UniProtKB/TrEMBL annotation:
Molecular function (Gene Ontology), one example: oxidoreductase activity, acting on the aldehyde or oxo group of donors
Matching SUPFAM superfamilies: Pyruvate-ferredoxin oxidoreductase, PFOR, domain III
Signal peptide start and end residues: none
InterPro entries in alphabetical order: IorB_Oxidoreductase, Pyrv/ketoisovalerate_OxRed_cat, Pyrv_flavodox_OxRed_cen
Protein name per the record: Indolepyruvate oxidoreductase subunit beta
Matching PANTHER family: INDOLEPYRUVATE OXIDOREDUCTASE SUBUNIT IORB (PTHR43854)
Organism: Anaeromonas frigoriresistens
Residue ranges of every copy of the Pyruvate/ketoisovalerate oxidoreductase catalytic domain listed in the record: 13-188
Amino acid sequence: MSNVKNILLVGVGGQGIILASKILSNGLINSGYDVKMSEVHGMAQRGGSVTTQIRYGEKVYSPIIGKGQADIIVAFEQMEAERWIDYLKPDGKLVISDYKIPSVPVLIGDVDYPNTILEDLQERSKPTVIKAAKLAKELGNIRTQNIIMLGALTKAIGLENINWNDIIKSMIKDKYADINIKAFTMGKELID
C-alpha cells in the first residue's frame, strides 16, 4: 500500500474544511484514484475542532490515518496544527494558516492562546506558513481562505495535473466560482 497518500485537514468549525475536503476528494475521484474520506465535526458549529482524513491511491481500504502516517497536514488554524502534529510522517509536509481562533477556555479567560505555536512546530517539522485570512480579505472575501489553503495543498503534494477549476465550478455556487478560482490559484502560487 505504499502508493496510498494520506492527507489530514484540521481546523475549527466554520472554516470551510469540509467543503475543501469534498472538492479535493471529487478531484481525486475524477482523476481515477480510489479515495476514502473520513470527517469528524466535533462541535463544529460552535467553533470546535474539525478534521478530515483523505486517503487516495490505486486501492485504499480504510479512511483512517494513524499517528505518524500523514504525508501532509493542512492546518486552517494554528492551535489545531499543534494538536495534530503527531500524525505527520517524519518527512511529511505541514502547511499552516497563521490564523488564530480562540477556543472557549481562551475566550472566557481561563487560559491564554499560546504565542509560540509556530516556533514549536518548526522544531518538529518545516512548516509552510500562509497568511490565508489576510490574502482572502485582500481578494475580497474572507470565506475564501479555505480555497487558498486547498490550492496550496494541491501544489505541495503534487496534484497540479487535475482540472481543479472545473471541480470548483461544479461544487460552488456560480456567483462565487470566479473568486474561489482566484483564491485557489493564489494558494498554489504560495508553494515553491
